[in-house]
Amino acid sequence: MERSGNRRSSPLGTPPGVGPMTPRPFRVRRRRRETRDTWTLELDPVSGDSLDAAPGQFTMLYAFGVGEAPISVSGAEGGRLVHTVRAVGAVSAAICAARTGELIGVRGPFGNAWPLQEATGGDLVIVGGGIGLAPLRGAIYAALARRSEFAEVVVLSGSRTPGDLLFTRELERWRRGGIAAEVTVDRAEAGWGGKVGVVGQLVASARFDPASATCLLCGPEVMMRYTALALIERGVSAERIYVSLERNMRCALGHCGHCQLGPTLICRDGPVYSYEQAAQLAAVREL
Ligand SMILES: Cc1cc2nc3c(=O)[nH]c(=O)nc-3n(C[C@H](O)[C@H](O)[C@H](O)COP(=O)(O)OP(=O)(O)OC[C@H]3O[C@@H](n4cnc5c(N)ncnc54)[C@H](O)[C@@H]3O)c2cc1C
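Above: query sequence and flavin-adenine dinucleotide SMILES. Below: predicted holo C-alpha cells.
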C-alpha cells in the first residue's frame, strides 16, 4: 500500500527509556468549548519537549483511570499540542471534561500527514463534515502560514445544525488570510441565514481549478464518498483527493490489528489515504 503524506509514525517525541506504549503526561493549559459536545484542549508537556506532530497525524490520548482514544492533532500553537474532541463515550467525555491544570497522557504522534506539499503551486480544497474539520484544522493553519505557495485555498465545512458548526470564531481569520471559507448545515434552526444542504453540495459552485486542485476530506464515510464523487464530477482525479479513515484502535503501533482494513493497518499506513486507495479498501472491507 502506497503511503500518503510526508510524515510517518514516530514515537520520537518519547524521551529515552520510555516505550511507545507509555503515555507521557501533558498538562491542560487551556480548554475552550467549541459546541455543545466538543472541546478544544491545548496541552503542554509536563517535562521535555512538546511533540512535533504534523497536520493529519494523531495521538493516543489517555484519560487517567478511564482509557485511551485516538485523537487527531487539530493544531500546534506555539509548540503546544492542540486536540479537538467530541464527547461520544466514556473516554472522549473524560478528555473533554479535563480542566485547566489537569493531566492527560499522550502517546505518539502516529500515522501519516495530509500531503500539503502535493498541493503547492495549485489549488487546495479542504472539506470537513462535523468533527471531521478537527483533523483538517492544522492543515488550514499550515496553508494560512504558507498562503503564497497555493493558488486558491477553499474550506468547505458542514454540520448537522448551526450549533454543531466547528471553529466558527476562526472563520473570519481564515477569510482575512485569503481562504474562501463556506459553511452549510443539514438542518437550519431559527435565526440561521446561511446555506442549507450537505457539504458535498458546495463543491459544484466552489471556486477552484479541478486540474490543479488537491483535496483533503474528513468526516463520516458517507460524506467523504459523496464529496469525492462531486469532486470527481468536477474533474478532480481520484489520486488528488485524500481522505482520513477512522477505525477503532488500540496500540497505534501496527501490532494489535484492531484497525486492520483489508491489507492495511490504518494506524500504520494511514489514517490519510488517497480516495483511489480508500475506494479499493472499501471494496474489500469485509475481508
Ligand atoms: C485516527 C483517528 C483520529 C480521530 N480523531 C478524532 C478527533 O480529532 N476528534 C474526535 O473527537 N474524535 C476523533 N476520533 C474518534 C475517537 O477516537 C472516538 O470518538 C473515541 O475513540 C471514542 O471513544 P469513547 O470511549 O469516548 O467512546 P466509545 O464508547 O468507544 O464509542 C462511542 C461511540 O462512538 C463510536 N466510535 C468509537 N470509536 C470510533 C472510531 N474510531 N470511529 C468511529 N466511531 C467510533 C462507537 O461505535 C460508539 O457508537 C478519531 C479516531 C481515529 C481512529
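The helical segments are 90-97, 116-119, 134-145, 171-176, 221-234, 266-269, 275-283.
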